[in-house]
Specification:
By secondary structure, the protein is an alpha+beta fold. The chain has three helices and seven strands, in the order βββααβββαβ.
Length: 89
């Protein structure tokens, strides 16, 4: 089962996600936030967007919004945006 092991903010509405298999990709949440749902509206505030956390390998926010690591992985893989994380020597 694939899990998110690390997430870091890299731009407005963008996170760099590192997965348990050593793959990494930059995910742009702009299209998700554009849907303007009850769960996404608070994340338009940059401080709220940056308040994400990882719980049981999923990407979550305090308001209850969460993303399946498998779905994010599949989206990045389909877009050709996954790369192997380089390990420091």
């Amino acid at each position: 089962m694939i899990k998110i092991v690390k997430a870091e903010t890299i731009g407005q509405n963008q996170l760099r996600l590192t997965f348990s298999d050593g793959m990494q990709g930059d995910y742009d949440f702009s299209a998700v936030l554009a849907k303007e749902t009850v769960l996404t509206m608070p994340l338009k505030n940059p401080e709220n967007f940056k308040a994400y956390f990882i719980e049981l390998g999923a990407l979550c926010w305090k308001n209850g919004l969460e993303f399946s690591p498998a779905a994010l992985y599949q989206d990045l893989q389909s877009a050709g945006k996954l790369t192997r994380v380089q390990q420091a020597a």
